[in-house]
Amino acid sequence: MHAPEPFRRQLLDALPRLRRYARTLVHDSAGVDDLVQGTIERALSHWHQFDQRRDLLVWLLSIAHNAHHDALRRDRRWQGLPPDELAQLQDAQAHHGPRDPGLRIDLLAAFAQLAPLHREVLLLVGVEQLSYAECAEVLQVPAGTVMSRLSRARAALRQALDGAPPARPPVPLKRVV
């Protein structure tokens, strides 16, 4: 059974924002493509489970978020770009960025130093402009956790831009039932 045409059009409209979110989760273009493709495949194969009262973008970001974390659990390792590779990538893409390449490089380097939990929430709220409730839905955490992570992410980003050494990444809490 194929997804209806209006659903597929909405899916296409959401692709740029989905791709932007995937770029913050995965730091290489092949990985981004794989994550976006996997998200779209899951969405198309489960289109009948989509609740029309929800925002399709929030649903897609949830799928991407879960797929990414599934891959992390499967691989049990995640490595960011080393600073020299990051600088090379930034130089190659400099013509797409702001007028001040130094600011862009500093911002991207500071953003790369953030813990993954902080990068995710900062992107969803700051760039994708999701509400705290929508962000909480995507990340499957309480809204208070979103606010706390966002506050810590902003503080860590400020410190990194001020030249302070990166703080220790937070230890994820485990739920005991």
From TrEMBL:
Keywords: Sigma factor, Transcription, Transcription regulation. InterPro entries: PhyR_sigma2, RNA_pol_sigma-70-like, RNA_pol_sigma-70_dom, RNA_pol_sigma70_r4_t2, RNA_pol_sigma_r2, RNA_pol_sigma_r3/r4-like, WH-like_DNA-bd_sf. GO terms for biological process: DNA-templated transcription initiation. One of its GO terms (molecular function) is DNA binding. It comes from the Bacteria. Belongs to the sigma-70 factor family. ECF subfamily. This is Sigma-70 family RNA polymerase sigma factor. It comes from Ideonella alba.
